């Protein structure tokens, strides 16, 4: 008796499964097709991003070669093109290269390129803070006290690993203007900061002893 009931239950279950597939055949085919398209799309997009990164890498390296053979005008054009691509890796590198090698002399043009980098979506937080610090460093010879603090304020008001660098930059800025009280104020903040860079902290102590000790 129990065996007959078990056979009947198995037959009923199989029939239900069969009817389910028959009645929902179109939906199942549609769902399977959609999943397949999404999988293909995901791998296609990943492949696209990889190829894009490789192309930028090749373009960056080619531009470095042009710099070696002293084709600066071409280097400038290529590096700006890389910056405009808003790549999280190569766009900042391209801007730093332009600045470090004095390929662009216009402060206004450099600041526009900094703004392009800072406008990159999903830029790593500390990479963004580094870009802000470098923008402040670049402008420290040109900008007023208020404008320089405005540029650096996102880092100065954060717990970033670059905060001690920004404080040191402001301290040096005021020290160069012989405003020792303000310089000491920024330098002392470095000494009390928990995550101060060790090298920055050491240089700060040297400057305080040399120029600000009473």
Distance between the termini: 104 Å
Low-confidence stretches: none
Number of helices: 10
| Mean of all residue-level pLDDT scores | 82
Radius of gyration: 30 Å
Order of helices and strands: HHHHHHHHHH
Largest sheet: none
Question: How do the helices and strands line up, and which of them pair or pack?
Answer:
Elements: H1 2-23, H2 25-68, H3 72-84, H4 90-100, H5 107-118, H6 125-139, H7 145-156, H8 163-176, H9 180-192, H10 198-212
Helix pairs in contact: 2-3, 3-4, 4-5, 5-6, 6-7, 6-8, 7-8, 8-9, 9-10
Structure description:
This protein has helices at 2-23, 25-68, 72-84, 90-100, 107-118, 125-139, 145-156, 163-176, 180-192, 198-212. Helix 6 runs parallel beside helix 8 (163-176) and helix 7 (145-156) packs antiparallel against helix 8 (163-176). The termini are far apart. The chain has 214 residues and is mainly α. Helix content is 80%, strand content 0%. It has a domain at 145-214. The protein has ten helices and no strands.
